[in-house]
Amino acid sequence: MKIPGGIAALLLALALSNLTPSAHAETLPNSQWRASDITLFDLIQNGYTITGTTSVAARSTGLPEDTYILQKTNSVYRCVETRATDSAATRSITPLRCAELVQPYRD
């Protein structure tokens, strides 16, 4: 199955995002992601669409963590939600954290 170029780039950015600090941590000057106070709801209301999702265990806690990638033309956000360990739980245990994909600062 062939993956369209834009989606492949998003998936690569998502995979590389696991190497950078989480959205709620202090943003480093060379980070690809800048923490944002915008909500997933607001992004959807402003015309962003979910173009990808992943669900893996968080490295720090081992709890299930869902990542949503949203895109509107050339603007990309990721929103991360950590869920409770109980698979029947529908509420997250932490607030959803969103970050915007940005050009990293370079000296």
Kindly describe this structure.
The chain is an alpha+beta fold and 107 residues long. The protein has one domain. The protein is 18% helix and 33% strand. It has 2 helices and 5 strands; from the N terminus they run αβαββββ. It has a 5-stranded antiparallel sheet. It is globular, with a radius of gyration of 14 Å. Residues 11-25 have low confidence and may be disordered.
Distance between the termini: 40 Å
Helix content: 10-25%
- Roughly how many Å is the radius of gyration? 14 Å
Helix/strand order? HEHEEEE
Query: In what order do the strands lie side by side in the largest sheet?
Result: 1-5-4-3-2
Number of distinct helices: 2
The number of E-state strands comes to 5
Uncertain stretches = 11-25
What's the pLDDT, averaged over the residues? 76
Q: Strand portion, in percent?
A: 25-35%
Q: How many structurally independent domains?
A: 1
Q: Can you summarize the main beta sheet?
A: 5 strands, antiparallel
Structural class: alpha+beta
The backbone outline, from C-alpha atoms, is: globular
Keywords: Signal
Signal peptide: 1-25
Task: Summarize the model shown.
The chain is an alpha+beta fold and 107 residues long. 18% of the residues lie in helices and 33% in strands. Strands 1-5-4-3-2 form a five-stranded antiparallel sheet.
